[in-house]
Each structure stands twice: as C-alpha cells, then as structure tokens.
Write a structure and sequence with these properties.
This protein is mostly helical. 57% of the residues lie in helices and 0% in strands. The protein contains seven helices and no strands. The structure holds magnesium ion (MG).
Length: 180
C-alpha cells in the first residue's frame, strides 16, 4: 500500500474526530435546559447566550464575508495578481500577517480587554493587520471553494455540541478530558 500523504492523514484525523464527536454526542449530550439532544435544531444550537442588559462590544453589520471576498477579488483582478494568489501562497501570506499582529503584542505582557493602554496609532495599526489576516483568510476560503459563512455556522454548532455549556462551565479542558 502506498504511504499515506500528509493531507490524507489530516482528512482521516478529521473523520476520526467527527466520528468520536458524533458518538460522544449520542451518548452524553444534554442541552443546557436538560433536554435530550434528539431534535435539537441548528437554530437552537446557535441561539445567542448573552443575557439581556449585557453591554458588549459589537461589529458593524457590513461588509459581509461575501462583500470582503468581492472587494478583494476586484483588487486582485485590477492588478492581474490572481496568477500569484493560489491557495498555498495565500495561506503563507495569511500566516505572515498573523506574525504582524503578533509583533504588535510582543513584549508587552498581557493586556486588558479594549486595550486601554494602547495609543490611537497602535489601535489603527492593529486594525490594519487584523484586516490583512481576514482578507487573506476570506480569499483563501474562496480559492479553496469553502463557503466561509456557512462553514462558520456549522463549526459553531459543532463546538456547542462538543462543549455543552452545562458540562464545561468555567473549565478550559479539551472535550476529550471532561466527563459527566
Ligand atoms: Mg500587514
């Protein structure tokens, strides 16, 4: 038998994980109100958990992922850069941008939510570097034909199944480590 390639390996690991997760859910998952998981819809799984009256930072409604995809597609088309934007190149570009985000946090120690001690210029820089990461992420998803908005919804639903709120409250353990 031919030696398994790294990507086949990764796919098989992913399948194993999904299978383990599926077995786990059937055996142990209970909803936060104690109901059995049978019949729980995606909408219910994605129900926001913020309590009324909580003041939280929120994003603007626009642009959507699709709009970001289109803006970047126009940008690359206008410059004839599509010839360079294959998936592997985009992945490497994205990782480079993650490094640029990390540079902004490097050697500062932990920082509080909202970055109260950062200057306007540092915040502006962070916004730019995070945007670089997001733009490459969206383009990478596009070039891999991953429908990112739907993939995010599906992954959030899986995360809710993997980490039932009533079982993992306040715990940072991996899903394989906690028990009833
Ligand atoms: Mg950058």
């Amino acid at each position: 038998m031919a030696k398994m390639t790294t990507s086949e390996d990764a796919v098989n690991r992913h399948k194993d994980e999904l299978s383990t997760l599926s077995n786990y859910n059937q055996e142990t998952y209970n909803g936060s109100n104690g109901e059995e998981s049978n019949g729980v819809t995606l909408t219910e799984l994605l129900r926001p958990t913020l309590k009324n009256g909580d003041e939280k930072f929120t994003f603007s409604k626009e642009p959507t992922f699709e709009e970001v995809r289109r803006l970047q597609a126009e940008f690359t088309d206008e410059r004839d850069w599509n010839q360079f934007h294959q998936p592997r190149n985009l992945l490497l570009a994205m990782v480079g941008e993650v490094g640029e985000v990390a540079e902004l946090f490097q050697w500062r120690g932990e920082v509080a939510e909202g970055l109260p001690d950062w200057t306007d210029s540092e915040r502006e820089q962070l916004g730019q570097e995070l945007s670089d990461v997001l733009i490459y992420l969206v383009e990478l998803a596009e070039k891999c034909h991953v429908d990112l908005p739907q993939a995010v919804l599906r992954k959030m639903a899986l995360n809710r199944l993997k980490y039932p709120a009533n079982k993992v409250q306040g715990s940072a353990k991996k899903y394989t480590e906690y028990k009833d």
